[in-house]
């Protein structure tokens, strides 16, 4: 009889296996562990029924305040975007649940085609030659881009702008420890003068504070110094602004979460990485191509796979071994449903609302927009108050006001990073203006968080 419903082995199976290795019980295999440590009393309460567990977990979940329960101006790599109902309905169909590319990938034509479609859509959006089938998230994509540049140039100096997302810079520094790379952080305006001896210059446009950046001089300086230009971008920005491939970038990276993937603490997210044709042999990840079989039937093949230890071993370009195809499928469905016009419309709404909100806030006494240059859909709000004081006071009003620039690691900057998207409502903007008015000027009514 099998007493364990989760194991296929019967007691007879167990006895036969134990006899084959010459022991009488499983406990005989655990002799190095003290007997009183094998089944210690844990002091746990009695188990609950399934219904009781569900009720208990529901009560715990009810204590959380989900994003969007009140005015919400957080943003950055992960953004609150509208997800059309058709996206999960299509992307989460059962046909896509076996989305891991097998070791004989051509037997899984559906998976390969879904990755091919993702690569094609992203290539068009970014105006880049080659897009891989995804990294873990934007931060790992930045680090992998830096490693690409190091391999291609033979240099170990990576120069990154301090206006690149702080999460990306932290991950880059972590990746750099093993290969002992030199990570140099400078302001965006100092990237071009810092190109000498660099493997790459990493620039973000729009940058972490929302400011629009002229990438071309950075790319020109990198190329003149024998370095590569890595641009950090955002999918919705590429729908309105000139895409990275037209700005001289050699490698393009970013976070794909805004493309129909719900916000979640820890993911899963979607790291975008793309490059020019000439660099493809150093691109980590799988590249899927379209072909015809002997009968002329359209098919898909795993054209390039440079990263895997089981394939390339010590010559692998990366130790990232998972293709997050379900996230790529979601992004593909989102892009296909929205189309160029829909993506531009969504991006445009965020830009319009951010500029209107910035105008209202900068009209308040003592408030100003932290950067003088043009910005996209987020901006830095500077006030006479300490940034943390203002942030926490707004949070008490139920307003998620945005990132704290100084505390988050943007040198020389102070204030709140306020982001708008197509989800930002007039009521939310009114609440933020009332809240800032009351907290900064000491006048006005308490902001309504609902």
Describe the structure.
With 450 residues, the protein is α/β, with parallel strands linked by helices. 36% of the residues lie in helices and 14% in strands. The strands form three sheets. Strands 1-7-6-5-4-2-3 form a seven-stranded mixed sheet, with helices on both faces. Strand 8 (286-292) and strand 9 (298-305) form a beta hairpin. The longest helix is centred in the last third of the chain and has 38 residues, at 325-362. It is globular, with a radius of gyration of 26 Å. The chain starts with 10 loop residues before the first helix and ends in a 9-residue tail after the last helix. The model has no long low-confidence stretch (mean pLDDT 90).
List the helices and strands and how they pair.
Layout: H1 11-21, H2 35-38, H3 50-61, H4 86-91, H5 109-126, E1 130-131, H6 138-153, E2 157-161, H7 166-177, E3 182-186, E4 200-204, H8 215-224, E5 228-233, H9 235-240, E6 251-255, E7 271-275, E8 286-292, E9 298-305, H10 309-312, H11 325-362, E10 368-369, E11 378-382, H12 387-396, E12 403-404, E13 416-419, H13 426-441
Parallel strand pairs: 2-3, 2-4, 4-5, 5-6
Antiparallel strand pairs: 1-7, 6-7, 8-9, 10-11, 11-13, 12-13
Helix pairs in contact: 5-11, 6-7
